[in-house]
Amino acid sequence: LFKSLEILQNINSNDSNIGYLYNSIGEAQQKKGDIKQALQSYEKALTIFQQQSNCNEQTLAWCYNNLGTIYEDKNEYNKARNYLNKALNIKLKYLPPKHPCLGNTYNNLGNIYYYFHEYDQALDMYQLSYEIFNKSIAPGHPSIARILMNIGIVYEAKQDFNEAKINYEKASFIRTKILSSTHPDRISTQNDLIRLSLKF
User: Per the confidence metrics, is the pTM higher than 0.85?
Assistant: First the structure.
């Protein structure tokens, strides 16, 4: 990626392909936990795309979503919510109502509302995400388990332990089928169920 970026920069520093590369580099950096560098890459990508007279709005949505998740990683939740809402507004214009990308953005927004302790709004976002994934991806997909865990976490925060248990158990059922017994997500789900059982 970096070699391709160097070649393109020597041709045209404002080429939209450079924006795509910066965005992809940012995603790789974010996965490695290099938050500062990832943010810089995403910001460079956004600047390049915004300078394009024929900029594709869906490309901007990609940038906004990435910036939203990086600010979530930085615990800057107001900025995260702002960028995620920008991404969502664009996606709603162009994508079918049950597109998985919408499910991802609703999930990300649910995370932000959860961090703000706005649990009802978080549940609304997670439920929208769950409904979309149920209709757009295969049953038993890891993303469905992730959403069920998020829903359970919110119910636990609301001290509705019965609903929390129901969702944790659904997530555990999926993860038990698709993950090894030593996978961190499977172990985490089992630990959550054990911890929750002590609250009854």
Answer: yes
